[in-house]
Design goal:
Distance between the termini: 74 Å
Number of helices: 4
Oligomer: single chain
Largest sheet: 6 strands, antiparallel
Low-confidence stretches: 23-53
CATH superfamily: Extracellular Endonuclease, subunit A
Helix content: 10-25%
Structural class: alpha+beta
CATH architecture: 3-Layer(aba) Sandwich
Strand order of the largest sheet: 1-8-7-6-3-2
Number of strands: 10
Radius of gyration: 22 Å
Order of helices and strands: HEHEEEHEHEEEEE
């Protein structure tokens, strides 16, 4: 009887040990894959080859007609390492669906291009469709090839890692005001002043068109006094219904 009890105790101990080990490996596996909470609420996986959904639809901000919404206190969560980084730019590789990932840059005035932007029509971002709604959209076309990091900031142009399928509303009403804010800072700040800038497209599951982008900027050398924002910009077009899984659309 005592021997049987000993065996049961040993089995229970080994079972608890295995469960604890599994939980620890799962936790650190999630950390290793780079899963982060985009809005500080629930886990999010990046847009790389990852079996997890890229984002939970229930956690997205609700579109109320405004092109963007401020996240938290509006101050980006850049790490100490990022805040100390030298000027440069990093673009994520496309995932297995051809989708862009986060684009990060430490920008100075010296990186801004002097020449006009070239053609980008040869790039077809994930979910791209050439479709017109002249009765609803001033520029007629629903979709633009939207730069994650604006050409005017670093001169990055026809690069598939930096271009997403975005609505005219996202591009002009949503992203452009923040890009102009970043440009104004770089033009007015002392030479060599660094602006941390990151744009993250937010996809749900295996959808080919992002639901929006998170835009973050922080002037590193003055504690964010010159430029600071953390916003989510909606990839929508008023009056148009978008199938984010395919990029197809129709009048509402």
């Amino acid at each position: 009887m005592k021997k049987r009890r000993s065996v049961i105790v040993i089995r229970l101990f080994l079972g608890l040990l295995a469960a604890g080990l599994f939980a620890m490996l799962f936790f650190w596996g999630i950390r290793w894959m780079g899963v982060v909470d985009l809005f500080g609420r629930r886990p999010v996986s990046p847009a790389f080859d990852n079996p997890l959904d890229t984002f939970d639809a229930d956690s997205l901000p609700v579109f109320d007609g405004s092109p963007s919404v401020t996240l938290g206190d509006g101050v980006p969560a850049f790490t100490d390492e990022e805040l100390a980084a030298s000027p440069g730019q990093t673009l994520s590789p496309l995932d297995s669906l051809g989708r862009c990932g986060p684009a990060f840059a430490v920008i100075t005035r010296e990186m801004m291009p002097a020449e006009p932007r070239g053609e980008i029509g040869q790039i077809r971002p994930s979910g791209w469709h050439t479709v017109k709604y002249p009765e609803l959209i001033e520029d007629r076309y629903l979709y633009n090839r939207c730069h994650l990091i604006a050409y005017a900031l670093t001169g990055e142009n026809a690069n598939e890692k930096n271009l997403i399928t975005g609505t005219r509303f996202l591009n002009v009403e949503g992203m452009l005001p923040y890009e102009r804010q970043a440009l104004r800072y770089l033009e007015d700040a002392p030479a060599g002043s660094r602006l941390l800038y990151r744009v993250t497209p937010v996809f749900i599951g295996r959808e080919l068109v992002c639901r929006g982008v998170r835009m973050e900027a922080y002037s590193a050398d003055d504690g964010g006094r010159g430029c600071c924002f953390d916003v989510f910009v909606f990839n929508v077009q008023p009056g148009i219904v978008i199938d984010y899984a395919t990029g197809e659309s129709r009048v509402e």
